[in-house]
Amino acid sequence: MTGISSGPGSPEAVKTGRKLQGNALHLLRFLASGTLALLVDASILAALNRGFGLDPFLSRLVAIFIAMGVGWLAHRNVTFSVKRPPTLREFLVYASVAWTAAAVNYGIYAGILIADPLTPPLLSLLIASSITMVLSYTSLRYGVFRAPDPGMDKQ
Length: 155
Hints:
Elements (H helix, E strand, L loop, with lengths): L10 H41 L4 H24 L8 H28 L5 H24 L11
Helix pairs in contact: 1-2, 1-4, 2-3, 3-4
């Protein structure tokens, strides 16, 4: 016997539990930030399409643009708790990731509406957003908001 416990109260178990708890909290923050952006997207889409009678395709493009700004701020501050000041590089990387995800999202959205024109635009939005959520998280986590390389600050 080595004297090192591997039971529920062991240091390894506590460390694993804290990591799982941190991951769950991180996922909840990602979902909250994404939900906020989705609500802005859906609200703008509904207002333009239903309230002003704009077609659902143009309405969605405007909604994406506005929701993207909300999403950047929410993910930066809530999901990833970025402490360093924002940079132009970060914004440009975020914008490229966000527009790529938005293009995929829009393609799915439009494809659904073209395949079945009777599908409500908000249902198409929810389906498309659910599918692109994984792409967005992976790109944000490992591309936009990853910890900076310490050597880059010395350039």
